């Protein structure tokens, strides 16, 4: 059973903010090179100092990039794995409204990544080239 708290509300709110900034939904997000959800993609871009690439191309001309980059940074602070590491909603609002330096976020919770190339090669080198083996056994129980 999951527990909801102020920190889970912050997490959910920021996922929504990242969806708005990127123009993409977290659920069903697809990255062509790696298997990433939207949080993982935002985290990867942020680590590589490329957060600007997260911004939806259709809204780049109408937005203020420094404000959007700050919202991505604050957003990543709000989706960290441990709720104690996440700021409260009021702290988040203060961070968004100020221009001071921000702490570096830790890896987000529910971050997923899998290299598709490695997954394909590891499966193909263990599997026979032209046939497959089904190791499934079905047992039917019948009463006496």
Automatic annotation (TrEMBL):
Pfam families according to UniProt: DUF3403
InterPro entries from the UniProt entry: Kinase-like_dom_sf (IPR011009), S-locus_recpt_kinase_C (IPR021820)
Organism phylogeny: Eukaryota, Viridiplantae, Streptophyta, Embryophyta, Tracheophyta
Residue ranges the record marks as coiled coil: none
Bias-annotated ranges (Polar residues): 121-137
Protein's UniProt name: S-locus receptor kinase C-terminal domain-containing protein
Organism: Rhododendron simsii
Region feature (Disordered): 121-144
Superkingdom of origin organism: Eukaryota
Keywords attached to this entry: ATP-binding, Kinase, Nucleotide-binding, Serine/threonine-protein kinase, Transferase
All residue ranges annotated as the S-locus receptor kinase C-terminal domain in the record: 99-144
UniProt GO molecular function: ATP binding; protein serine/threonine kinase activity
Keyword Ubl conjugation assigned: no
GO CC list: plasma membrane
């Amino acid at each position: 059973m999951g527990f909801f708290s102020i920190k889970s509300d912050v997490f959910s709110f920021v996922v929504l903010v990242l969806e708005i900034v990127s123009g993409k939904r977290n659920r069903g997000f697809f990255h062509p090179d790696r298997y990433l959800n939207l949080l993982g993609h935002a985290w990867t871009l942020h680590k590589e100092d490329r957060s600007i690439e997260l911004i939806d191309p259709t809204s780049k001309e109408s937005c203020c990039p420094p404000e959007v980059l700050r919202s991505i940074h604050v957003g990543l602070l709000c989706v960290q794995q441990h709720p104690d590491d996440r700021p409260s909603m009021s702290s988040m609002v203060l961070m968004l409204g100020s221009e001071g330096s921000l702490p570096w976020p830790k890896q987000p919770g529910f971050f997923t990544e899998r290299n598709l190339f490695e997954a394909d090669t590891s499966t193909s080198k263990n599997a026979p080239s032209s046939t497959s083996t089904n190791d499934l056994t079905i047992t039917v129980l019948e009463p006496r």
